[in-house]
Sequence to fold (107 residues):
Amino acid sequence: MVLTRDFKETVKERAARDPAFARAMLDEAATAFLNGEPHVARLILRDLVNASVGFEELATETNRPSKSLHRMLSEKGNPSMDNLAAIFGAVRKRLGVAFEAHAVEIG
Fold:
């Protein structure tokens, strides 16, 4: 019998032990959001929150209920810009990174 691992558990463990991977996930979430793919950004953020901050601590840091944060970062979530900024800010702070946006021409 072949043993398999849950993909989400694998991502969570890798992000928890590999800071570069966690930063890449945050970068990917921000890029997806800025490129008009908020649903992708929410799901990446959800996995990253699970691997780094945790929803209970995120609730404390953002002054928002944990259950609401879970809904915001669900497949059908619809967080406001203020909530999304608070989530990105808390994860960014936990990972010790800053954002720097660059515009590139599409040609």
